[in-house]
Amino acid sequence: MAALEMPENLLTAATQEGRTDWLETLPAAVDDLARRWNLSVGRPFRPGGRTAWVAPARDADGSDLVLKLMWRHPEAAHEADALRLWAGEGAVRLHAVREVDDHTTALLLERCRPGHALSGTPEEDQDVVVAGLLRRLWREPESGHPFRSLASMCAEWADEFEAKAAAGGCPLEPAIARRGMDLFRSLPATSDRALVLCTDLHAGNVLAARREPWLVIDPKPYVGDPTYDALQHILNCPGRLGDDPVGLARRMASLAGLDPERLKLWLLARCVQESPEWPGLADVARRLRV
Length: 290
Description:
The chain has about 290 residues and is an alpha+beta fold. The chain has helices at about 10-15, 20-35, 80-85, 125-135, 150-165, 175-185, 230-235, 240-245, 245-255, 260-275, 280-290, and strands at about 40, 50-60, 65-70, 95-100, 105-110, 195, 205-210, 215, 220-225. The model has no long low-confidence stretch (mean pLDDT about 95).
């Protein structure tokens, strides 16, 4: 069995997360999947992801595919289920999925060609593409669906934030911090819609393709308020967010068909929640609070 090339991002993340034993199982897993799915597997993409080994592949028919092996982590627990639900409408197609062992899930995916990320285009153009994709991906969950609620994710993140704040790790004034966490806990319960969400849709997770101009990869699905889904793209536009957070929220709300006031509340909550690791968002939160 040949040595398996490991991208630096994955090596670093696995070391930080104590997953070096998982790295040791990858060569055998890739070999087994290549035989099972009759694949010719190339060198992994670089820089690559932090929680997955991802490489181009071809099957016996010459189809252009991507093999993705990821260690199981809560945010991406139902990636395959979401891709199956969307069935290629605005997102990459899922060709096969296999639970390799108790720690590893493998996906065989459509490959995007030419494959460059939307992040290389002007941000105003990104706004239009991201909003259009979100509107296509939002849909009612099927009966008996496996997806977790957005409320559960927000409650967990709020607990983590409050623990950091109690240890002195919050750069915000207590009143703003409390307001942000009150919103983070309450907003999921006050939505009049509960739809399947991507939750991590930003321009780096949108790739140029031939079947459609742009396709979504790497969703982290939950079910809940669609207004939440515009946040990650907004946070990934730090210049405009810092210059005019209200204007950016209103623009994305208009493009995505969302309530702008509700999106501003969500943005305040998320800026508070992210402020311990991203101190610049504390100033955005203060401005939104006013």
